[in-house]
## 1
Amino acid sequence: MAKFLSSNSPKREKVKRAPTFFESILALAILITLIGVGYIGYGLPINPILMLASFIFVFMAFRCGWKWEQIQNAIVEKFKSVTVIILMNFLVGGTIAACIYCGTIPYLIYLIFKAINPNQIYLWSFLSCCVFSVVTGTSWTTAGTIGLAMFGAGLGMGADPAILVASIVSGAIFGDKLSPISETTILAPLCSGTTVYEHIYSMLYTTVPTAVICAVFFFICGRSMPGGAELPVEAVTVMEELSGLFKFSPIVLIPFILIFLGSVLKWGNMPSLCIASFAAVFVGILYQRADISDILNAFMGGMKVSYLGIEDSSILSGATLSIVQRGGMTGMGSTNITVCCGFVLAAIMSAAGFLQTAFSPVLKLCRGRRVRLVVSTLFTDFVIMSCAGSSYPAHIIVSEIYKREYFEQSLDPKVLSRTLEDVGTMTTPLVPWTASGAYYIGLFGVAAYGAGGYCKYALNCWLNPVAAIILAITGIGMFKMSQEKKKKMLEQLDEEARNEGEVQGILDLEDEETKSVSPACNPS
């Protein structure tokens, strides 16, 4: 009896296994149901919904043999990538507030009012954001600087906020997709096995035609704006109020110029923003005569007109207040909470294998079928991006799922990399709980969907996946590999698989040796 009750008796450990197809589909169905019913149907906050889904998936992972420590490690590993996004969000919020206080963004808005045809504010917003995002390589910085300036100008001209945000977002993601210094433009070819510039050349086939359609659309939208070619009274009022609140001269454009130079000289997004922020603080103190405590408080908590000596904000127009009272690191808190909740969900689903198993039958349907392959890649990337809250894990997972089939069909890796960005990069603003969707909603204060939502007007987001399918059907831009290159790429995949198998075998052997030695270490 004592022997039977001995604490040294071996305990049966549950072996970790891959989820079944039913379990994987159930996980996706639970997530889609929670989002569809809770967020879309009843308008509940997205963060608690994502947390509830994560809680359910933890217990589903337990059924597959996972321990909490392993799940926790997977979440920690995922947050190595999300940390940069969170820091960028905080930094963008602070930079916006500092650039408002020193007069950079108000002066840009003032110049826009003087230079453009009011009826074409949508087109100008789209084109300016296209150019700036290509130069900077980031849609977020573009939207937070020139985009925010165009938004303020458009509000003063009586523009529809939803169409205005759509034009800014459509232009911002244009460069985020095509710029050689964009993170997604670097990541997608890296995952697919091609070069950055081959990838960019391939993307021209879908991105340029859709951009032309967007430009025509926003031009037509501008022609329908009321008021003719003259600035409306509201815009004139905003110009007068801004020039009264700030001292305007080219000096206040220094932070904007530094962001531009940082992109050209490849300083990196965060160093460029840091330098621009410091410059904005110094310009505010030395030129605008700002109190150092006020400008630092604005950097932290957001810009307020009270810092400019305006105690009664009601004397200013609503458009002017919407331009001035923005930004701040704390103002990005809700956005970062959404990012964190989304990445926790992604870590659990990806580590436990729910996503990979759920899409395994889809891959079988694509064998030797080019159109099915492209459509399945687009669909899978969109689903994983929506679950993960970011295009980064989607690019990585989807390329691993479909890479071999692209090579088997002799399709060049740049076709796969382009397809990843056609949906993974371009459609993130359409999903409110992704990092990009939450950022744009928080930045402009305009909803994604509903009567005043911007998504239905963001044609660039919708048209790129459609263009990708059209190319697959017609065969245009579906670059083929030579037999030599095809053989080389497949051999490379085989070599990688062998290496991964050898490493896993070593780890399993070490684990078995540890288990066999550990009982002898325990006192009897």
## 2
Amino acid sequence: MAKEDIFSKISRIGNYNNELEAVLEKKAFSEDVKNLLLSMLYKIENAYADYETVKRNVEKKKEYVKNIIQIIEEQCKEIEFVKPYTKECEILQGKNFLVDKENGKIISYQNEKVMLEAIFSMAQKENTFLETYEMIAPSVAEFLKQGSIMNEVEVIRDFNGWSWDIVTKEMGNLYYHVIYQDLLILLGENFMRAWVNKEETVPEEEEEDIEKPVNNILSNKNFDNIYMENEPIDYLQEMKERMEEKYGEELVAQMLMLLYQLWIGIFIKDHPEERDRLSEKYHKVVENLEEMQNKENYIENKTKEKKEIAKKIRQMDTIINDDALLREEYTSRNSKLPNKEKIFSISHLVDRLEKERKQCMEKIKQINSSIEPKQFVENQKKLEQEKKFWEEIGIEEQTPYIDTLLEKWQEVFIGALQKKLEKLETKKQITDFIYLLRYGYYIPTPQGFMGTTNIALEQREILQKTCIQKACEKKVLEQVSEEEETNYLILQQLFASKIIIMENIYLKMKYKEGILSIESYDENILERKVEEKLKQNTELSVKLNKKIKLFS
């Protein structure tokens, strides 16, 4: 398509196109690249309203589009296309795109979705974690990287301006996708975006029925969460505290344990070097537990260890208080160190010895504590929990137990949604929750769409029943039967509908010989038809063979 044709077609959509055009005029991109970027923006503009309607929990279109334009302007210096099945595409090494952040270069196939993925990849920052999280840091970083990209491109991957069609092909790791979408629901889009982007302020809690402020700083109450001197935010701790406030400490403790196990399990499946590193930790735990089985031997060994450390402390004290021994130690140590690590002076050696002495004293303190009866029992219990943690992941197995962990995660996740549902009162809140459950029905998993799998099936059905019951009580939905099971049997069709605007859904029911035929309509257009077997003598509160509007 010619450049003039594209500009003519998208000029009706909004002012963002003019902004992108102005940016592209300054870039030395080829006409093909410019056309693709404009086409990409057109698809986003065309699909965003449906995306926002279906998912609810999304960034405002204005901010989403402005972010894309800003990345193109500030970070994309060169964009190059390669054709599939040619020698030049070998540079991609089997991937759809390649990003060189240092030089601001993108090499990709000529495809809008692929280009959008590359643009967001260009902008991604490396997530760093406190030492406390060294065990899970690589797996969490990979989760944020993959989960956020799949989430960002959803608007043009699954929406085309007139329908919602989930495309799982080439989506990426679906386990990451499920967990990312669940955390979006639990924590909100604002928080997840800030975490991915390593923002220096923690966004304020998002409130129901209140539009989020555009300015992230203004959205913080009294600037309480602004960290001074660029101190990194512990987003994992923030996540824990926010979830505890909403869902309670007991449930969140289960959720965090399963999250950590899932992150690790998913990551080590494709990263053998990380599996080896963490397997060593598991074996150390097993060894320590075995050592503690014989309490007398354990105490005896710890006592010997303490004596050895005490002897080392006495030796350091002797060296520190004797100038001749200090010079001898200085020469001895430097002879074994490479040039860049050599000790600068005698005074630096003294500082180092005093630091080593302090560490030895702390180690003795830890040993003394570990052999106290109460602490011994607590340490043993902690090690048993750690051993269970690793074994539930399947750290020693060829394939980690990811599916089992995902099932358990979904069970506690739905428990959190039950708590969320209990607090909802307004019609808008309940309507949004119905949309949330419908969106959750179509979240892709490795086993298929969530609503068509057996993953936490019992818990999902209980949640859906509770939601429908509350929606009928609050006059959000039309009650079609006084009999609770029949009412649920019919109204659960909502969750399987892919009609964009759920308020436009109509049902028509026909009954014959114990079989109820349920037809779903998008106003006058038939979407789907299902048949359900009813109990005898079941009565409906609505007329048969007549379309009824479900939302009040």
## 3
Amino acid sequence: MAKIIKAERSSLPRTVPRLLQILFVLLRHNFLGALRGRKHLPQPKEVRETFEELGLIFLKFGQVLALRRDLLPDNYIAELELLHDEVPGLHIDAVRATIEEELRAPMSALFSRFNKTPLAAATIAQVHEATTIDGRHVAVKVQRTGLDTVIATDVAVLNFLVVLAEKLFPSLRALELPLAVSEFEISLNRETDFGREGRSIVLFRAALIDDPDVWVPDVLAEYSGRTVLTMEFSAGERIDLYARSHPETMPHAISTLVRLMLQSIFESGVFHADPHPGNVFVMPDGRLSLLDFGMTGDLDETMRESLVLLLEAVVKHDARGVKEAYLEMATASEKVNRASLLLDIKAVLYEIHRSDLTQVSIGTAFDSLVRAGSKNGVHNPSEFFLLTRAFVILESMIRQLDPHHNYIESFRVEIKRLTAQQFSVARIEEKTIKLGRDSERLIGDAPADIRRALRRVASGQLGQLQLPALEALGGRISRNLESLNGAIAAAALVIGGAMLVSNPLASWHSELGEYMIIGGVIGALVIYIGALRRDRGRR
């Protein structure tokens, strides 16, 4: 994992000169005029130029803010989206020093050829074309030197400025800017962790190894480390350039990109959050090649399942379904105005379905949902912003490749496939088995946990209570857990049977579903009767 100095550990002598430098730049661009009120806020162009002048970390922070449409007005978002991270390349001596320190070998022992001119140079790293000593054609990604210290210092300064801004303008507290800075620091740590990026590439490659339409370059582990990442070289052409000379191939390429995005989100849970044309190449044999996995998102199984339901509800124009699935994914506080949230979601869906299908944007729908949630007291998870970013960038690329492509139809087809897979017999069986195992583990562990707690109570550690009464209580809890286990199993049978009956994939599925429903109902009745008999016995 990349060695990052935490912002709070950045020393005062290191932070103060940088803080003074930043305050001088802010003063020159009229930021401090905001102290006199909203009418004196700097213009969007000045904000962008300020971020560019302040350097690497502030430039990246501006790019992150460009995703937060729930925080900033549209004119500021539009200007921040113009921020780019193309910077002058490092001198070859600095590149050589980083590689030799990381890989503990001289360059001449590692590469027979190393192009001194980088293929691309950005704020975090730059990429060079090379040939390994054993003849493999590779791309070498080298991290900029001193990045950890720069990140720690500038993030510490950002935290100070945010706290100061909230004291001067208490209304800013509603924007949760300290949380945005914290998530930004986490994002930077991810992006500078080349070990994590290498693992993401391995996961993507394993998931897509049998896909005839996609190629992901392999990682050369022996040529990679914390600050150096070496991969197979992609000999293809940027997809936007390829589209100009081969427009007839774009419908299939676009369908592949949509399928790839949704498959990575819902099946593996790891998705590429920066799918712009510079990261998608077309190989000489027609396959798509994905590059640069520095910015990826991770979704756990629960969030993936909720996301399937959310997208299906968006396609079906089901506002209540969207609201419930959204609140399962996000953190809803007690202050959430659910009625207002539902009205805002209905407005979002209305705008989607009144538009021409070729102009519908899932990224915009996510963006509107994020805004509606923030407005009504929902705290959106950081992965949600990455997801929004991924869809917005993907859709922008699709419009560029083929302005008349019916993107939503490709999306609908893939969502239908994923929904069918979600409720397949194999999936239901897998969930039922997992539910049974979890319940069995709970039942098995509960009596021992209760006995341990009772022994601590009896020894006086938790107060003086009579042991026989507590043992009786433990017995009742154990019996109730057994009943709960049976009830869960019965409910699983009924739910699984209902799914099979309502959406049969084969003729025998419906019949199996009916038997499962009958079995679940009988099981529930047996549990209920047993509970009644135990209750009478106690009385």
